[in-house]
Amino acid sequence: MEIVIIGAGGHGSELYSYLHDMSAVDLQIHMAGFVDEGKPSGRWNEAQILGGFDDLQELLRAQSDSAFGYITAVGNNELRRTLVEKAIRLRAPNLRAWTLIHPGATVGRDVIFGEGTCAAPGSIVTTRVRVGRHSILNVKASVSHDCVIGDFVNINPGAVIAGNVHVGDGCFIGAGSTIIENVSIGEWAVIGAGAVVIDDIPPYCTAVGVPARIIKQPGWKEARVGSR
Fold first, then answer.
1. Are 30 and 1 in contact (CB under 8 A)?
2. Are residues 161 and 148 part of one domain?
3. pTM score, two decimals?
4. In sequence order, what are the beta bridge partners of 219?
5. Could you read off the pLDDT of 188-205 as tens digits, one per residue?
6. DSSP letter string over 17-70?
7. DSSP strand pairing (42-44 vs 47-51)
8. Are the C-beta atoms of residues 117 and 11 closer than 8 Å to each other?
9. Residue 20 belongs to a domain with what CATH number?
10. 8 Å CB contact between 96 and 114
C-alpha cells in the first residue's frame, strides 16, 4: 500500500520515521509522499511533498489501480478533522484512512483502534480499550483497561490514563498529565500538561494544575463581563 501523510511538519516527520520502521517489517508499505497545502511540491528532507489535495486527487486518478492509505500528521484536533473531511470529499475509491500501530507500541488483548489513528513507539494500551478514529497516542502515552477514547483525540507524550476513563471526541490531553480511574472527560475539553485530573471535566472546558481545576469553560468571557 502507498501511504500519504497529510501534514509536512514536525509530527509529519515523526510519522515518516515511524513509517520507515514499519516498512522494515512489512514490505508492502511504501511512502507515496506528503500532502500539505502550505508548502510547495518537491523534496522535503528525504521524502516528497506531492502538493495539496488537488494534486493528491490527480495522483489517485493517475494510479487508479493502486491502493493508497492516508494518515493525518497534525496535532490540532479541529484542523485534523478538517483535513480528514477534505480527504473524504475527494471520493476516491482507492484512498482510505490508514491506522498506524508502531511495532514499538504495546497493545494488549481486546483493543480496537479506529481508522486513521496513530499509536506511537512506546505507547501502551492494555486491554478492553476502544480508541476512536483519527486519534493520536503519542510517545509513551498509556491507556489502561476498559477505557473509551473518542474520535480526533490527541493524547500527548507521557500522559497516563487510568482504568475505566471515558475521553470524549476532540479532547486534547497534555503531555505528562494523569487522569485517575473512573473519570469522564467531556468532548473537546483540554487538559493542560502535567495536570492531575481527579474529577469529571465537562465538555469544552480547559483544566490545569494539581489537582486539575477548570480555568475556562463555555461562556466564561460573557460571565466575566456580566459580573462587573
1. yes
2. yes
3. 0.91
4. none
5. 999 999 999 999 999 999
6. HHHHHHHTT-TT-EEEEEE-TTS-SEEETTEEEEESHHHHHHHHHHTTTS-EEE
7. antiparallel
8. no
9. 3.40.50.20
10. no
